Amino acid sequence: MGRAALKIVLITAFAFIVHAGGLNAAAAVAVVGGGEVSEQDISDWQAAQGCYGEDAITSRKAGFMRMYEAAILDEVLTHNALRPVTREEYAKEVARIDTETRAPDILACIKKYFGEGTARYERVFIRPILTQRYIHEFVKTDPKVQARAYGLRDAALKDIAENKTFKEIGLERGIAYSTAAYAIEEDTAAPAAPEPWKRWSPFEGAFITENLKYLKPGEVKAAPIEDPASIKLVRLLSVTGKKYYFESLTVTKLSTEDYLKSVAKLPVKITDKELRDWVAPIKGNPLLAPAEIAPEAEGEVKK
To answer: Where would I find the H helices in the chain?
Structure first.
């Protein structure tokens, strides 16, 4: 047996011991608001990751981080966003993965470990997927979260209806103003620009088709162009051959990262000293922003 195979066997064997309750599986290594991360959560995650093969990251710290992130986002979705993940959404995601997986052998390995029922499988394998997906979806479109951006959008539309210029609106409202020229297709006769970002991209043609093609010079696209990061208002200035010249007002939306920084702090107690000392100084993970880790106190942290 090779080292990689032995590693997977050992991880799975240890996880089965914890899964069976042999190492105090229910013990919480972290309490996150009203939720928790247990020893079993971590060992289950390690066992599932082991199914991905010898290059899979299966460390205890990695397992804790994945479960910790999911616990934080679950609390934020439930109590701040008031948008908890439902049983129907769990079932739908389980069915989607069953149908769309490109690695049936790996999925079979994971499901074999979890055995009958889906509660542990959903908690450890599905919850991290759904909590990240739904926090991004919530922030992207929630009217309260995006109140500032939507307010600027509506104010700019009112200004446009009053025949103010885009440049005036940008200066008065603090909205980014810019001009650009896109081509419907590549000019193969022209020399290629040395800088990659100046070369023609199919995005230009798609943008023209979706937003500019049916406008007359001087006309504003009635519907704002919205994506997860911004809201854009565009006016066609002129068309020369295959080139479309236009101006834009771009309102930046609140990002998921900034939203997570803005929510009320979530009380966290990590009762495992090694994990606490490792995760407490981490600053670069935006998913951890809501967490406020309690100071180490006598009796709270394992020695």
So the answer is: 3-19, 39-50, 60-75, 87-100, 104-114, 119-121, 127-141, 147-161, 166-173, 202-207, 256-262, 273-279
Half-sphere exposure of 157 (CA within 13 A, CB side): 13
pTM: 0.84
8 Å CB contact between 44 and 12: no
The residue type at 298: E
Segment 223-249 shows an average pLDDT of 97
**Residue 9, CA distances (Å) to 47, 105, 110 in order:** 9, 16, 13
Residue 18: CB atoms within 10 A of its CB come to 22
Task: Give how far Cα 171 sits from Cα of 44, 165, 174, 233, 266, Å.
Answer: 55, 10, 5, 15, 39
| Coil vs helix vs strand at 6 | helix
2 pLDDT above the threshold of 70: no
Single-letter amino acid code for the residue at 191: P
**AA letter at 301:** V
Show the CA angle centred on residue 93, arms to residues 254 and 20, nearest 5°.
Answer: 110
Give SS3 for 156.
helix
